[in-house]
Design a protein that fits this description.
The protein has about 700 residues and is α+β, with helices and mostly antiparallel strands. Strand 3 (about 90-100) and strand 4 form a beta hairpin.
Length: about 700
């Protein structure tokens, strides 16, 4: 029996299958996906033949999936396979990365489906898609976002319609809006700024020209508070070059602005009083002078200085002095509230009056300033009285900042010379005098270097015998144009400018050398003394005693031949320093004379406190002796006081015989003056064993034997 089977249906089925596979091959050649089938152990049993992902080719057959994935994902992959075995027909999606033969890592998105129940597949199907580029892009995006979140600046990106597309962590902290709240919002609603019309036009022009713009802005937080930022706006352009958005980077500069403000305050304000300093004063005065020509009103400057401020510092300490300056600054500011009150330096204040009618009004306001010291200042529980000297100048047509302050300072100096606590208006003649003093200072410094200075000597005699027992050394300046100048022409300038120290050292060195020379030649008595004047600044010099000691050694002059003359005025400036200095000199063997006795502050107290050997009676008292009963009585008292204390007395400025005889009658031992000789050069002091006198008359060096030898 023969059976026949119709195979047409089978052929048709195979044809359909072949066509389907052919179609599959064509499609999979052009997609970036592949597939694989795994058994229950995760071994690859079949791989799609025509995947664009070449690395998922047939060579993977027989490999275990767990061995293919990166080591860090193996445990996770094993757990996933176990899970799949219990979930037939349900897809599980994961992302795996595989180390390729070249060493690169390739990322894939894998969709696993358990089809063990399917009699055709009987395995786990893994649909694979290469997502390496996507992952790299996402990683880069995350990295950029992390960077932008890490920076301390707020970074905001907007689209072409000013809607916010990016808002980093710093922006959240800076503006108070979260990224979720800000995203999609118009930038003007969450970062309100105060662009001026000019600034807005500037920003638009920069962005339109594809240029960044940077500037300061004031913006508002979510809570409504306003703060400053430094903002940089950068344009984003599309492929066609059109503006598609803006990136804004802003930094909160609140602290920086506060710091700048503090620096500005320190640069323009006095740290102690809070008043404008010199820089701000100059700016205010310059502005006032610019404005003045257009007004009928005038600008005036008052230069004020606290009188005897050093006494407060020396007696109560610098902190008390600072307190006094603060109190004075407050009072001046209160009495002249519409003026610019500045601390010029030290104990000096300058006031700019930018709206006065004339000099009289300026003087009236200056008097108000001076009057602020009528009431005492309570400092550290003590009432302190301080006065102010003030100078006033009103601007003329060519006034400058420098000339105004200079002229007011000159006027203030005249107020101080008048005794302090006064107001003086500027006088052109005062400025001339100041310029003359400056010229004297310049030339005097040159004189010290060019050997223009000389020392003259005025003899000191015993009134009993008219024997020369000493000399006073006095400096003279042989000026190249003005001839021989006496100390009155330059000594005050030397003291005010510090040149006095150089003058004193010159006189000391010259006088000691001369005294040693006369003694060596036998031209003078054994008890001959050389007197040299010291100023207050000389006494304050801590090197003075060391210098004098070296001069005595170098010159060969015995220490007991040198007498230093000091005034009571010099002693009162710093009594402790003066006392220490004079004691040092006494230890060297140098003697001390108190000059101009009776014209100072408290003569008797200084005679008791200081190591004094000689008292010199001032010429103002000597002038009336024998003629004025009061002067005669005063000298009698001084001589008696000196005798009681064991001090020698010398009368200065004796000009006639009546004065000499009366002084001798009163018991004064020594004298000097034009009666015998003016100060003369060394070569004229001793002539053939005699003292050269006025008009060439000779005065005996040794005369009749005295009842009691007088000595310096």
């Amino acid at each position: 029996m023969t059976s026949f089977v119709d195979i047409n249906d089978a052929r048709a089925a195979r044809a359909v299958i072949a066509a389907a596979r052919h179609k599959e091959r064509l499609v999979t050649q052009h997609v970036s996906e592949g597939w694989a089938i795994l058994d229950r152990s995760g071994v690859v049993t079949e791989v799609s033949e025509y995947s664009a992902i070449a690395k998922w080719g047939p060579h993977l057959v027989g490999s275990t999936l767990i061995d293919l994935v990166d080591e860090g994902q193996r445990a996770e992959t094993a757990a996933l396979l176990d899970q799949l075995l219990g979930l037939p027909g349900r897809p599980l999606v994961t992302e795996l990365y595989f180390e390729q033969p070249e060493g690169d890592l390739q990322w894939y998105e894998v969709v696993f489906v358990n089809l063990f129940d399917d009699p055709v597949v009987e395995g786990i199907v893994a649909n694979v898609r290469d997502i390496t580029d996507r992952r790299r892009s996402e990683d880069a995006t995350r990295f950029q976002a992390t960077l932008l979140d890490a920076v301390g600046q707020a970074v905001i990106a907007t689209d072409e319609n000013d809607r916010i597309m990016y808002w980093n962590r710093a922006a959240e902290l800076t503006y108070g809006w979260s990224a979720a709240e800000a995203f999609g919002q118009d930038i003007s609603t969450v970062a309100v700024s105060d662009h001026s019309a000019e600034q807005t036009a500037e920003i638009r022009a920069s962005l339109a020209a594809d240029r960044s713009w940077t500037g300061e802005q004031r913006v508002r937080r979510k809570d409504g508070s306003v703060f400053p930022v430094l903002l940089t706006l950068t344009p984003l352009l599309d492929g066609g070059g059109a503006l598609s958005g803006i990136i804004g980077v802003s930094t909160d500069i609140t602290e920086r602005k506060r710091f700048e403000h503090e620096l500005e305050r320190l640069a323009l304000r006095d740290a102690l009083t809070g008043l404008p300093n010199r820089a701000l004063l100059a700016d205010r005065l310059e502005q006032a002078l610019r404005k003045s020509p257009s007004s009928r009103r005038h600008v005036a400057v008052v230069f004020a200085d606290v009188d005897r401020f050093k006494l407060v510092n020396d007696s109560m300490g610098h902190s008390s002095g600072d307190d006094l300056l603060v109190f004075i600054a407050r009072r001046i500011s209160a009495v002249l509230p519409d003026a610019t009150v500045a601390r010029f330096g030290g104990d000096e204040f300058v006031v700019v009056l930018d709206d006065v009618a004339d000099r009289d009004e300026a003087m009236e306001l200056a008097h108000k300033l001076v009057d602020v010291t009528e009431r005492p200042f309570n400092i550290a529980g003590t009432d302190i009285y301080a006065t102010i000297s003030a100078g006033v100048v009103v601007a003329d047509f060519d006034a400058t900042v420098e000339s105004m302050i200079r002229d007011a300072d000159v006027a203030m100096y005249q107020a101080k010379k008048a005794g302090g606590g006064q107001v003086r208006a500027f006088d052109e003649r005062d400025l001339f005098a100041v310029r003359e003093r400056m010229e004297v200072e310049r030339e005097l410094r040159e004189a010290l270097c060019d050997d223009q200075l000389e020392v003259f000597y005025q003899p000191i005699l015993e009134l009993e015998t008219e024997c020369v027992v000493g000399a006073e050394a006095l400096v003279r300046w042989r000026h190249p144009r003005r001839g021989l100048l006496e100390p009155s022409a330059f000594l005050s300038v030397a003291e005010a400018t510090g040149i006095i120290g150089g003058l004193t050292r010159f006189v000391l060195r010259t006088a000691c050398t001369q005294a040693a020379s006369w003694a060596c030649k036998g031209n003078v008595r054994e008890d001959f003394r050389m007197s040299v004047n010291l100023s207050a600044s000389d006494i304050a010099d801590p090197e003075l005693s060391t210098f004098i000691q070296s001069v005595l050694v170098e010159s060969g002059c015995a220490a007991n031949r040198l007498i230093v003359e000091v005034t009571e005025t010099a002693l009162v400036e710093d009594t402790d320093t003066a006392l220490s200095c004079l004691r040092d000199l006494r230890r060297l063997g140098v003697r001390v004379a108190l000059d101009d006795f009776g014209t100072g502050y408290s003569s008797l107290s200084y005679l008791r406190r200081f190591p004094v050997d000689v008292v010199k009676i001032d010429r103002s008292f000597v002038a009336g002796v024998g003629r004025d009963p009061e002067d005669t009585a005063l000298i009698d008292g001084i001589v008696s006081l000196g005798r009681a204390l064991g001090l020698a007395t010398v009368a200065e400025g004796i000009e006639d015989q009546l004065q000499a005889d009366e002084l001798h009658r009163l018991g004064c031992e020594l004298g000097q003056g034009y009666l015998w000789s003016p100060p003369v050069p060394a070569e004229e002091f001793i002539v053939a064993g005699r003292l050269a006198g006025v008009g060439g008359a000779a005065i005996r060096v040794a005369a009749r034997s005295p009842r009691r030898a007088a000595s310096l």
